[in-house]
Amino acid sequence: MTGNMVRTQAIRDVEAYVPPAHRFDEREAPGEVFGENVFSKVVMQKRLPKSVYRSVMSTIEHGVTLDPLVADAVASAMRDWALEKGATHYAHVFYPLTGLTAEKHDSFFEPTGDGTALAEFSGKTLVQGEPDASSFPNGGLRNTFEARGYTGWDVTSPAYVLENPNGNTLCIPTVFVSMTGEALDHKTPLLRSQQALGEHAERILNLFGHTNVKKIVSFCGPEQEYFLVDRHFFLARPDLMNAGRTLFGTKPPKGQEFDDHYFGAIPERVLGFMMDTERELFKLGIPAKTRHNEVAPGQFEIAPMFEPGNIAADHQQLLMTTFKTIAKKHGMEVLFHEKPFQGVNGSGKHVNFSLGNAELGSLLVPGDNPHDNAQFLVFCAAVIRAVHLYSGLLRASVASATNDHRLGANEAPPAIISIFLGDQLADIFEQIASGSATSSKGKGHMTIGVDTLPVLPTDPGDRNRTSPFAFTGNRFEFRAPGAMQTVSGPIVTINTIVAESLDYIATTLEAAAGEGTNFDQAVQSLLTEIITEHGAVVFNGDGYADTWPVEAEKRGLANLKTTLDALPALIAPDALKLFSKYGVFNEREMHSRYEIGLEQYALTIGVEARLTLEIGTTVILPAAMRHQTEVALNIGALKAAGIEPDYSQLRGVSAPLVALREALNSLRSALTREPEQGADAAFSAAKHARDALMPAMSAVRTAADTLEELVADDLWPLPTYQEMLFVL
Ligand code: ADP
Ligand code: MG
Question: The pTM is what?
Fold first, then answer.
């Protein structure tokens, strides 16, 4: 099939597409299926002996180390439950540093030697596994001769059964560590950082008179943006298939300017997909809640309800896998890339953060009179101080080759990390800075001018979509994370830097108490000190304005534009000290993460560069040459007929063709140039990718995109932006 035939056929198929018949019946009503496939607390309570259940709960709720005898009892109940659910295999699921989810499946059944097989699953197999998995990135933490990696059961994240037409699997969320116990994954540091955050938050709560506080954790509500494209188009775009984004393509004549897609009616087929995924997510106990269209055509968002950070992170990974599978069933492909289409709005994954527990709720709720709510102000001040002191680490936690296309552009938050507080809080902290806060700007109300409508209250703080870290009423919303990345990295960072601030505050207040200082006064002067020293990070203005980077520089805030600028923050002395002090990463682990960040960056761009070369050479160049030939033949025919031809069209297509050939040659030679070896080989490779490969790719793209606007439509081989974004 020629390129054009692929495109025509794809469009025909899209037109003829009938969504899969609706499987929705009463039994599958959301309330009925929620948590159906989860080995939840309720299931455990029903199936475990009382003492075992109590023991597991004290691990989950109070962090008490798990008793191995208990593991045997849990394993046996879990196996029976899973077999009843049709599971034939079990899998330790883990989260390696590729950012993807990995699983190793084992059969429950073991031959007994007499020709039959028995379902076996002991506490030992539940608690620990040893997948070989030596090919995952480890940044030097595992040498091949000591390549053992272990998975270990995370009791706090519930096991679940994953359905598959060919048989179900019991999935057990686990950590993944090396023989020395060093983290090879995203979950281990997340659990460690939850522990640190909890410990120091509890100290503060004790000072405020709370006793017997249940474990404090961070809560995370991740908002996931994504694109859907028809699978036919996807399969006809090698760049989308292999790099997750288009490396070529001109903006459609009608982009997102009209805002007619944003929050508009959801297309029927997309709605079918959403309902299907939500039902699957519900079965897995993932509380999918909000869904709507996003800014760009073909772009959507889903926001599950917030959960403890560790569980939210596992659920987020499971959500992404579920999306991929179900989209295929509906003849679509989901794109999680941060910038699949150049010039079109990109996708983020906002991480909504707060801390608290079931009893106390979010500790970031201001109440009606926040100026009088010292406990809230202390937790809020801790976040402000943390973000100011460690903005580089926050920036590094969202750094990737793919997210670089988004950060700092006029659609996503800038690469400068600042905090938005909203009018009410900003005003209170201003009062605190100049002594003490005595009033809170109250809620207003708006009159709509229609008698039948009630007077609606307005929030005391407005929204600011341009801020990377915004207070939104009962939480902070970190908007810089990319759509593709796991939320673990950002949560680990926020947990740890906030733990450090809480530690600082608790230590100061404890010392003041020891000296007999009045508690209220001690809090007052500490808040004033924090806001005076760290208020520079508060910015309520327009983060997209040209004046902001200038102003930010004056305030001493960093503007780390690319991943290469951001990653070194991970191995700066203060970062190494911070993470080891709170037991989240040792120095080796930090260095390994730095190395892996660089490797992944170079790898991503390397693949894109080779794809650009291949598609440019074998797909676009020949198509453009065919077009050139047709134009030339036309000129010949005109001349033969005695008509004076217009050469401008031929010149028009020939110039960008020459440019394309030259750009391809430059890219080819950039790809063969070896980056420097040596101690900092990973950095050199990443630098080569950024400074040599990216500009060379961009030159190829410019020439190719010019050609797309000139070459006859029936000769153009790739599905266009117009088709991919609007045909759903
Ligand atoms: P937005 O208006 O920001 O798009 P959404 O409703 O799409 O809001 O998403 C908000 C997310 O924030 C949801 O995942 C929600 O559960 C989460 N969230 C709400 N309250 C908290 C909280 N206290 N802590 C953490 N996350 C929260
Ligand atoms: Mg939202």
Answer: 0.93
